[in-house]
Amino acid sequence: MSHAVASHPILDPTLAPPFPQAVLPVLRNPQLRKNVSHAIDVIQAKRAKLVAEKKDWQELRSAASAIRAHALENLGAYLEEFETRCTAAGGTVHWAADAADARRIILGLLREENASDVIKIKTMTSAEIQLNPFLEAAGVNVFETDLAEIILQLGDEEPSHIVVPALHINRSQVREIFARRMGLKDLSDDPHALTAAARTYLRQKFLKIPTAISGANFLIAETGGVAVVESEGNGRMCLTLPKTMITLAGIEKVLPRFQDLEVMLQVLARSATGERMNPYNSLWTGVTPGDGPQRFHVVLLDNGRSSILGKPKQRQTLKCIRCAACMNACPVYRQTGGHAYGSVYPGPIGAILTPQLMQMHHAQSLPFASSLCGACYEVCPVKINIPEVLLELRSQVVNQERKDFARFFDPMYLGLRVANLLFGSSRLFHASQRMGRIGLRFFTRKDGWIHSLPSVGGKWTQTRDLRGLPSQTFHEWWAARAAQTSPLSIKEAK
Amino acid sequence: MRASLFITCYNDTLFPETGRAVVSLLERLGVQLDFHPKQTCCGQMHANTGFRGEAFSQAKRLLRLYQDTETVVIPSSSCVAMMRDQYPGLFEELGSESLRSDFAALLPRIFELSEFIVDRLGIEDVGAYFPHKVTYHASCHGLRALHLGDRPYRLLAKVRGLELVPLPNVDRCCGFGGTFSVKNAEVSSAMLAVKLQDVVSTGAEFCTALDNSCLMHLGGAMHRQYAGMKTIHMAEILAATEGSPAEATH
User: Fold this and answer.
1) Under an 8 A CB cutoff, do A391 and B47 touch?
2) Which one, A4, A123, A285, B158, has the greatest CB density within 10 A?
């Protein structure tokens, strides 16, 4: 029995179908939608409770936002500082311009280690560069150690959320995957039984495999240190047992000072998982003789980030600390889950980050995948004004598409151009209202409502009726009333 | 007090009863209302769909029409949000210094209807009578862009005969989002279905809001699904009295 959801979601923005098409298999999958809405409702409620108990939440948000903005404004200097400190502490820093570069560097490091197997701490950045399939193809066996990542890896699934990547899979589906892939026929779907199965599976990997890959929540310029937060302790295992650690981090992850963690760890835990503090906060700096990995590499990934940095309106996108509060709050994500975004980064942050990482060559439908309700901005712990960036990207997409002659007669484009013409003159606007009243009469039923419209209007009437146009517009009523009560008509009435 | 009514393009065309209610309500409260006959649209649809140049030309047109107006009152929270959140950026990017400064001078004189009544007129009891069970949909723009807060609730609390039923998940979007409702019609409809469930669960006779765009969306689904419930703009509730009940109750 297969529980494959959304038949083979493609998380490669260069190949994924546009959002309005990609949502269709999800919207027809009631189990998947139930899994997603249930899971995010639980996280949302936890977050709301823990944010409410923090009386200085807005001040914390402002501080977090300021720290991230400052780091980005001085990113070059802080990255160099990080490199200097990390190197001094025994680490090696590598710079990767793009995904292919990063993959090549990591594979090279694994070759140096003669590593045929590698264990991984959950890292969405590695999914961004599609590291696992690349390493597997090169003959390296990759083993995820985060529970959700194990579920995805064994179930041949794709992540649908950046904090809870297997959020779309419920526990009876997890049971099925584990039973099938671990050969445990009698496994129950009791959470304790499932985690026990994962633990048994993992212990063998931890004890056998001496090479590990991680991501980073933060890089600390002042110390050259790396911070990873997690809930399970499997990351901590990867940081203590292996001999070699390779950390992959986006260049935007840097914080100026160690002290900044005081603010960042508070807002991150509360926003991400609705906890006062993450159960495991691992911080390490270079190499410590006799303790933990003795060879340590950091791969700093650009992959489109520096092009975002150069655009003042869009730069705020890089403040993101990957807490996923925006996707948990998003009414669109609540319906669609993550796969429809065609990227490892779904939800509102994905809708702005993915097209920008693609330098606006792909994922152009994503900035439109939002009702602009503003819930994302309200919860964002680093105050990224996501609706503002969405609008900026929408206008860039429209400017691109307008150059395409085939779009000239696209009903949406035609409609908006005509509407602009009409709104430019009240005379034309009023004439169009009168014409619309006549034209729509044909579609208006006896009950005074329109049940079906052609073209773009049909997109509305597929689930909604539209009240027929009233016989008098407001301005006509106003003019008629003014005529009645004008001094002239009063005089005549006398 | 004088105020000029910007009715908005879609209220003018689709919901003239809202405009008539605003007139009777505000005149009852002693406001001398003007109506600029050349008004059309604020440009929100174009701005939100990425047509920035078009949005700018409409913003410029609106500013030139209203720049000498004492006070502008608008019964649509999303159009007010358009002006507050997007006009400054549009004028900054595409406009001249005179547009920027003229708009900066006009902005504090632009009011959403509930802001105008509560903040500008200083009134909470507008003398309305509406003997019905009502739930209030706090539209996203009213809630998160304008921060209307408890103003709408304070106004509704003083309406005689009105029983207010709280709406579960009141901060959740109805899925309209302007052209989003047709560009992403399937997702929009899925969001609408969830919202409608919450709205219907209140058992109210009417769902009200300060924005007819959400109400057009919700009302369209109510009609399609025979929900036995109607939508009504809050202006129509506040305008209603014993002597002249709201048109929607006829």
Assistant:
1) yes
2) A123
**Helix or strand run (H / E) with residue A297:** strand A295-301
Mean pLDDT, to the nearest integer, of A234-245?
95
Please give the pLDDT value at position A8.
64
Q: Is the pLDDT of residue A30 over 70?
A: yes
Judged by DSSP in three states, A97 sits in: coil
Question: Smallest CA–CA separation between B16 and chain A, in Å?
Answer: 4
pLDDT of residue A1: 35
pLDDT digits over B193-224, tens only? 999 999 999 999 999 999 999 999 999 999 99
Report, as an integer, the average pLDDT of A301-327: 97
* Subunit contact A372:B35, Cβ cutoff 8 A: no
| Complete edge-to-edge strand list for the sheet that includes strand A280-285 | A254-255, A218-220, A225-230, A280-285
Q: Does B196 touch chain A (CB under 8 A)?
A: no
Among B residues 113-132, those touching chain A with beta carbons less than 8 Å apart: none
Chain A positions in Cβ-Cβ contact with residue B11 (cut-off 8 Å):
474
CB A445 within 8 A of CB A453: no
Nearest to A459 among B48, B141, B185 (CB): B185
| Mean of pLDDT values over B134-154 | 98
Tell me, what's the pLDDT at A406? 87
Q: Which residues of A touch B7 (CB under 8 A)?
A: 474-475
Confidence of residue B238 (pLDDT cuts 50, 70, 90): very high
Please name the residue of chain B whose CA is at the shortest distance from the CA of residue A376: B144
pLDDT for residue B248 = 86
When the pLDDT of each residue in chain A is averaged and rounded to a whole number, the result is 95
pLDDT reading at A5 higher than 60:
no
Mean predicted confidence (pLDDT) in A122-132: 97
Residue of B14, B52, B192 lying closest to A467 (CB–CB): B14
String of DSSP letters for B121-168: S--S----B--SEEEE---HIIIIIS--TTHHHHHHHTSBT-EEEPPT
Q: What is the mean pLDDT of residues A3-32?
A: 85
Locate the chain A residue with the closest alpha carbon to B145: A374
pLDDT tens digits for B171-186? 999 999 999 999 999 9
> What pLDDT band is residue A13 in, cutting at 50, 70 and 90?
very high
> For A416, which of B49, B85, B185 is closest by C-beta distance?
B49
The alpha carbon of residue B45 is apart from the nearest alpha carbon of chain A, in Å, by 8
B-chain residues near A456 (CB < 8 A): 182
State yes or no: pLDDT of A488 exceeds 80: no
Q: Is A368 exposed, middle or buried (0-12, 13-18, 19+ CB in 10 A)?
A: buried
Chain A hits for B58, CB-CB cut-off 8 Å, are 420, 423-424
Any chain A CB within 8 A of the CB of B215?
Answer: no
DSSP conformation letters of chain B: -EEEE---HHHHHH-HHHHHHHHHHHHHTT-EEE--TT----SHHHHHHT-HHHHHHHHHHHHHHHTT-S-EEES-HHHHHIIIIIHHHHHHHHS-HHHHHHHHHHGGGEEEHHHIIIIIS--S----B--SEEEE---HIIIIIS--TTHHHHHHHTSBT-EEEPPTTTTS--S-TTTHHHHTHHHHHHHHHHHHHHHHHTT-SEEEES-HHHHHHHHHHHHHTT-S-EEEEHHHHHH--SSS--GGG-
Cβ of A424 and B183 within 8 Å?
no
Q: Which domains does chain A have, with CATH numbers?
A: 59-145+210-307 (3.40.50.10420), 411-493 (no CATH)
d(Cα A288, Cα A285) in Å, to the nearest integer? 8
Q: Can you tell me the distance from the alpha carbon of A111 to that of A306, in angstroms, rounded to the nearest whole number?
A: 29
**Chain A residues 393-452 with a CB less than 8 Å from chain B:** 394-399, 412, 416-417, 419-420, 422-426, 429, 433, 436, 449, 451
